[in-house]
Amino acid sequence: MSPADLQWSIVWPALAAGVLVTATHAPLGMQVLARGIVFIDLAVAQIAGLGVVFADWLGFEPNGAAVQAAALGAALGGALLLTWTERVWPEVQEAVIGVAFILAANLAILLLAANPRGAEHLKDLLVGQILWVGPAQLAVAALAYAAILGAWLGFGARLGRTGFYLLFACAVTISVQMVGLYLVFATLIVPALATRRLPRRRLAACYLLGVSGYALGLVASLAFDLPPGPLIVCAITLLGIAVLLLFRPRVPS
Predict the structure, then answer these.
(1) What single string gives the DSSP state of each residue in the chain?
(2) 3-246: CATH homologous superfamily?
(3) Which end of the chain is more exposed for a tag (fewer CB within 10 A), N or C?
(4) Residue 47: its pLDDT value, please?
C-alpha cells in the first residue's frame, strides 16, 4: 500500500464521521440557537461522558454495550432533568445548564482520579479520537442519525420540548464518542451562528461550512502532523468568521 493510499484509508472514515455529525447537528444547532440554550450540548455531552467514565470505573469493556447504554442513559436522564428545569425555572435555564455541565465534568474527574490512564480518558472525551473511527462504528452511527433526522424533520415542533431534548441527547451521545466534546460543540453552534443572517438556504450553508471545516482540519493534520480535533475546531471557526464577515449588515453611510 502506497503512503497516499494509507493516508486515505485513515482519513476517509474520519471525514465520513464529520459528514454524519454535521448532517445531524446543523438543524439541531439552528434550533438550539433559536431557543437560546447554546450550552446545552456541552452539558448533555458531558453528562453522557460521565456515563462512559462511570461504566469504565465499574470495569465494563470500553466499547461494549454496557458503556453505550450507560452513556445513553446518562444523557437521556440529563435531558429529562433539563426539560424539567426549563419548565420550572425558564428564566435561569442557561445558568442551570452551566451548573449541570460543571458538576458532570468534576464528577468525571473524580472517577478518573484513581485510574492510571485517567488523563488519557479525559483527553479522549474532550478532544476525541476521530482518526480511530471505524467503518462498523460509522454504520451504526449512520443508522441512528438517520432515525434522529427523520424524527426531527418529520415531526419538528410537534415533538415538543421533551421530544427535542431526548432527540438531542441521543445525537450528542453518539457524536461525543466519535469526535469528542469540543468538536460536538463547534459543529453544533458555529455553523448555526455564522449563517444566522442568511436570507435563504441557511441549512445548506451550515452543511457546507461544517463539512469544509472537517476536510480542511484533516488535511492540515496530515500536512503538519498535529492532532485533528483542535485543527478541525479552528478550521470550522475560521470559516464561520469568514461567513459572518461576508454577510455582515451594511452600515448606512
Answers:
(1) --HHHHHHHHHHHHHHHHHHHHHHHHHHHHHHHHHT-TTHHHHHHHHHHHHHHHHHHTT--TTSHHHHHHHHHHHHHHHHHHHHHHHH-GGGHHHHHHHHHHHHHHHHHHHHTT-TTHHHHHHHHHH--GGG--HHHHHHHHHHHHHHHHHHHHHGGGGHHHHHHHHHHHHHHHHHHHH-HHHHHHHHHHHHHHTTT-SS-HHHHHHHHHHHHHHHHHHHHHHHT--HHHHHHHHHHHHHHHHHHHTPPPPP-
(2) ABC transporter involved in vitamin B12 uptake, BtuC (1.10.3470.10)
(3) C
(4) 92
Instruction: Say whether pLDDT at 161 is over 90.
Output: no
Q: Which of 162, 172, 175 is nearest to 82 (CA)?
A: 162
Per-residue pLDDT tens over the stretch 38-90: 788 789 889 988 998 888 888 887 667 788 888 899 999 999 998 899 889 88
Q: How far apart are the first and last CA of the chain?
A: 61
CA 216 to each of CA 5, 219, 234: distance values in angstroms, whole numbers, following the listed order:
18, 5, 10
| Distance of alpha carbon 111 from alpha carbon 96, whole angstroms | 23
Q: C-alpha grid cell for residue 2?
A: 502506497
Which pTM value belongs to this model? 0.87
Domain ranges in the chain are 3-246
